[in-house]
Structures are given as C-alpha cells and as structure tokens.
Amino acid sequence: MEPVKKATNYVTESVQSATSGVSKETNKEVARDSNNPIGTRASAAKDALGDKFNESKHDARAEANSPSRGTNNNQGSNQGGGNLI
C-alpha cells in the first residue's frame, strides 16, 4: 500500500509544482508589462517570488515521493536510524 501512497503523493506534488510554475510565469509577464500600473507590477513580482518558492517546494516533495527512488527507505542514506560503523 505504501507504493500507491507514494505514487499518489508524487502525482499530487508534480501537479502542484506545474500549477505554481504556470502562475509564476503569468505573474512575471504581468510584472514586465510596462502598460500595467506600478502597484499591479509590484504585486505580480511579489506573487511570482511566492510561486517560485512553492514550485521549488513541490518539486522537492515530488522528488522525495518519486517512484524511481524505490520503496527501500535505506537507499543511500542513514534515514532509517541505524548505526553507521
């Protein structure tokens, strides 16, 4: 059941990352458009930064749940809490 949960989380985080990426690009375009009022441009720039943060966060979470990482929690790290000798 754990692989299904990880796969679901991977898809969810990937979709959220893509959504944040689209929003970021839209906000960047609004911020760059000199026909928009300065307040609108500043707000869009701020929102683009927030979207970039969210995109990166969701990318990291998707990577953590990536099916290519396998189901073994001890792959390449000591996250299982065991002692290294």
UniProtKB/TrEMBL annotation:
Residues 48-62 have a biased composition (Basic and acidic residues). Pfam families: Grg1. Signal peptide: none annotated. Residues 1-85 are annotated as: Disordered. Residues 9-24 have a biased composition (Polar residues). Transmembrane segments: none annotated. This is Glucose-repressible protein. The lineage of its organism: Eukaryota, Fungi, Dikarya, Ascomycota, Pezizomycotina.
